[in-house]
Amino acid sequence: MLKKYLRIFVIALLSTACTKQPAPIDPIPTQEQVNWQQLETYAFIHFGLNTFNDMEWGYGDTPASTFNPTALDCEQWVLTLKACGMQGVIFTAKHHDGFCLWPTETTDYCIKNSPYKDGHGDVVGELCEACRKHGMSFGLYLSPWDRHQASYGTDEYVKLYHQQIQELADRYSPFFEFWFDGANGGDGWYGGACETRSIDADTYYEFEKARDVVWAHSPEAMIFGGTVPTIRWIGNEKGLGNTTQWSVVDGAWLPSEVDVSIRPGWFYHDNESPKSLEQLLNIYYQSVGRNASLLLNFPVNCEGRIPSEDSLRAVEWHQAIEKRFAHDLMKDCKVTHHDTPSEMIFTFDEPTTLSCLVLQEQIALGQRVERFTISRYRNGKWLPLETNEETTTIGYKRIIRVKPAEMEQLRIRFIKARGPVVMKKVSGYR
Ligand code: FUL
Known about the structure:
Elements: H1 2-5, E1 8-10, H2 31-37, E2 41-46, H3 49-53, H4 74-83, E3 88-94, H5 123-133, E4 137-142, H6 155-172, E5 177-179, E6 186-188, E7 195-197, H7 201-204, H8 207-217, E8 222-224, E9 232-233, E10 248-249, E11 252-253, E12 256-261, H9 277-287, E13 292-299, H10 308-324, E14 334-338, E15 343-361, E16 369-378, E17 381-384, E18 398-417, E19 421-429
Parallel strand pairs: 1-19, 2-3, 2-13, 3-4, 4-5, 5-8, 9-12, 12-13
Antiparallel strand pairs: 6-7, 10-11, 14-15, 15-18, 15-19, 16-17, 16-18
Helix pairs in contact: 4-5, 6-8, 9-10
Bound molecules: beta-L-fucopyranose.
């Protein structure tokens, strides 16, 4: 049984492609989920009343008149993000404080009643336009929890929430992702009631209906949060994915997203600074390198710009990644594979030192590998490659940093899998 299960198919980029197409193993991703996963890194932008009031969670009573960016430039955001290798951006159209950054018909608590462009501004629209102009995917975050609205907790609020999604979908689609967010209920201003309200998030918001509104214009949109998600939270806001990371959850395909801010806060605070290059590189290895997508947040400042300190750091980070993964030292290897034991052997033309491996499964056919080992052949013997990473799952992409070591051959042995292993690509770097 095991023997049969551990056959290897090597599809796509490797030279020894198999002749027979292996059968998929359910669950498999939708084409939309595959496309989304290939984005790998995209940006979050948190901006709103909190920015101007030095807060993370506004109570819902901060005056709309305090929203007053002096040099807001959405094109600067988009061009900065593009220079950092980001392929999309998700914007906080409304955070928990309930303030809407587009001129909505649903509430007065919005940009129309701010000094920005004398009440004629529309940050959601301006960002949407800049994204279209520069070929960047666009997404929105609309907090279901609204600490401003008097009706929060009643059916009336749910109607208003769905109406807001409808407005956003009608005006700014298509979206590549829509964020419903998980923080729900609690204390708030609620039209002056200043009390604590609790709701049952699983039933209250009617997320299925909300999702259908998004999908009517953007069938490709990934849904984050709520009861009908197509992607899932990694479980922390530290940029830390797990070494064992399945996109298969309870029989469904539900890939992971790592959300983390380049600064300690999600919103801009004068006394905070961006993470170091080393911290950001670790975040990359621990997210994209562990079968997850990276949603990296950039707090926009009171001027309405991404601070240059942050953009310089993020560009430096992107360039460091590009440089590290520029030359695949395994691209000319001769590849052989066997079924018993289930393994792939890569032979180099001359002894080669590697410090990093990138493994990819053909996820369109399902995620399969559960455990593997990596070894190098040098001077007549096989030796394990030393790594701090657990070599368990692979999925869309797994990056394994190893102690630099010279080898004539590299061996990947599959110890346990949900079915015949189907690899898409293996590459190696120094
Ligand atoms: C959380 C929120 O409570 C935070 O303020 C932030 O927006 C983060 C991305 O999601 O649930």
